[in-house]
Write a structure and sequence with these properties.
Layout (H helix, E strand, L loop, with lengths): L10 H5 L15 H26 L3 H7 L5 H15 L3 H12 L5 H15 L1 H12 L8 H28 L10 H22 L6 H20 L20 H15 L2 H6 L1 H6 L5 H14 L2 H10 L2 H24 L1 H16 L2 H19 L3
Length: 376
Amino acid sequence: MRAIEPPTPTTDSATVETAVDAAAPPRRVTWPLKATTAIVALFLFVLALELLKRGARPLGPILTGTLGIQNATNTLGFGWLVAYAVLSGSPVAAIALSFFHEQVINDVQTFTMITGSRLGASFIVLFVGFLYYLRGHQRGASIAIGVLCLIVTATIYLPAMALGIWALNGGWLERFAPRGGSELTGILDAIYDPILTRLDRLLSGFPWLFFFLGVGVLLFSFSLLDRALPEMHAERSAFQGIGRLVYRPAAMFLLGMAVTSVTLSVSVSLSILVPLSAKGLVRRENMVPYIMGANITTFIDTLFAALVMSGGAAFTIVLVEMLSVALISIVVLLTSYRWYERGVLAMLDGIMRDNRGLGAFVAVMLITPLALLLWP
């Protein structure tokens, strides 16, 4: 195998930008401005959750009647498809919690919809890899990372989903549900009721508009939060000088958890892998544990949303999801990681062997959630 040489300052390498960088050079933003942006983003995030709660109930007949969502399989496909549409999983998870709060879907259906949202969120990495491929990079160093993220996410989340449903049905984690939700609800009502009362007058007769307004505010709040959080670049921050740590699965696993905890977005933390691979800084086998770790801490913002929206019951659903993924990941990491890694990379090689294999994989990723949504 040819040794990887450090990037040289050629014209091509100088013009390559990371997936999370803007076209223009990053502007220096003062910390007070970042802090203010974060506060505004948090305010809008909670407002969006309140709007989603008010608009979820009128959409119940559309979900159960028009879309035919009747079971946990349907909600799995629904969450998966909506995450494709918005290229993010966190907003879809919040939408699932709003449906649960209004009793449009039950706890298991909420659980599978959140699982679907995380499966769909991995698609953005494939999308970013395709953009890199169009800019002249090798397909194996760009698109392959998106395929790898989808494979790792699916192979961990699907067994974790089975474990989580068993835990939910058994009520094993209900004792860990936080108490005192009424105090938090009272504080939020005092802050947001004046805004919601005025919106009630403006949207009188169209309660379903609350939901779509909530989705818009939610996406905007995540956009603001992205600007307020520390920026993650492929050649700086946590990735600078990691040296031999990339060859230690446990270190990369913890790094994936840490980066996602900071960015609060698995889409961002996984998209960083595309330029890393394109520039030959990290090999694909070193990315597998990073993806596994990132897929655990991506639930931090959803845990907060659960507390704000529905209290202990919703918190338990998200906690079960997070712990199930963590347990499966840790068991794989400690007991059978090398076998798992070889299996994942073998699947990747088979898919990337030619355009037909890649096309078939993309078709499966598009058809599967639709089939789940339509499952009787």
